[in-house]
DNA sequence: TTCTATACATAACC
DNA sequence: GGTTATGTATAGAA
């Protein structure tokens, strides 16, 4: 008989995988799984779903049902135009035309998707634009490109801004303290905590502990 | 002893669920699962992911990392100026500037949505995507050199991590997914380290209660 | 929602 | 890409 060569799956912590290679493998496998899940959600419930994934390296993968463009388009229209609240679609933000590369990809995706669906309607998966297995992931991850740093920065800046504003509102409107949670090993709860705002800083606290500062 | 009350999970065919109620339940469960998967993919591999879900009922759910809202700003800035090399790599990041009509629409939509959905995450949102709020931080960061940006980045990333980690803990420990709900008619999913947004703001929820809106 | 019993996804290895 | 042993997501029922 065959020798047991594997110890089987092991539990992992959900945090960035530092090891480049396994990170890439995981990305690939999970991306596939994500698309599959999205696909099943569509088929089972009739919902429309669009998933856009892009690796730090910049490659874009997408899944869409009926297809990405339509979905995005729909969001676009429901925004700029006005639609009753009835059958609503969305009210997300206004999207710009997709960049050429992305556009092409989505286009391609749409085709592939359509074909597969027509064929068996099991799942319309995606496939990166053209190149098969290409080194895309490693490049920018370690040196974390400026653009990514900036994205994070802005993301955080926005978060902070909103947190601040919200904190103010919450404290003004009702006197309920804003609490995000407790500490490790500390009982969880949303009462008894308080939000402290000081010129520029925002601290989430619970009991005597602090777990977040902005 | 306890009677076996369930036959356990059964294999199902991936085809539309006709029974309305179970379809609804499945939608809810799987949507949560999908967001969680997306979240994990982001955390584990550092990829950027956006998920848009349109339920048959018309509700819109979205998940995105990094924060879409901020990417809008980011885009706006790089767009008006020069499409900087920092250019956007993801389709998700290509958003058009929010137009006034859009904002108004979103506002209106939010109201309608509120009426239709008497559940809980209804109320008011604030901070129309973009600016309009506490600019101090914004401006402070605006003309900062890259080196500085990186410093800010690190400090903020650390803070963000704490919050995200905490959210994760809350979710894992209490099994209640920490939800970053959206308004503007868009339900935002949030779990495991992702900040979900969309033209407006988001809501931190815990179990059935809301504990923070930004 | 919550609870099982299972189906399915996937971490390690090849 | 495939295999195997497990960790997880969930269908069905309450």
Automatic annotation (TrEMBL), chains A, B:
The GO terms this record gives for MF are: DNA-binding transcription factor activity, RNA polymerase II-specific; protein dimerization activity; RNA polymerase II cis-regulatory region sequence-specific DNA binding
* InterPro entries, per the entry: TF_MADSbox, TF_MADSbox_sf
Keyword Nucleus attached = yes
- Pfam families for the chain: SRF-TF (PF00319)
Instruction: List residues of the MADS-box domain.
Output: 7-67
The organism's place on the tree of life at top rank: Eukaryota
Supply the alphabetized keyword list. Answer: DNA-binding, Nucleus, Transcription, Transcription regulation
SUPFAM superfamilies per record: SRF-like (SSF55455)
Fetch the SMART domains from UniProt. Answer: MADS
**One cellular component GO annotation, for this chain's record?**
nucleus
Q: Where in the cell is it found?
A: Nucleus
Tell me yes or no: is Nucleus among this UniProt entry's keywords: yes
Q: What is the name listed in the Swiss-Prot or TrEMBL entry for this protein?
A: MADS-box domain-containing protein
Source organism per UniProt = Tagetes erecta (African marigold)
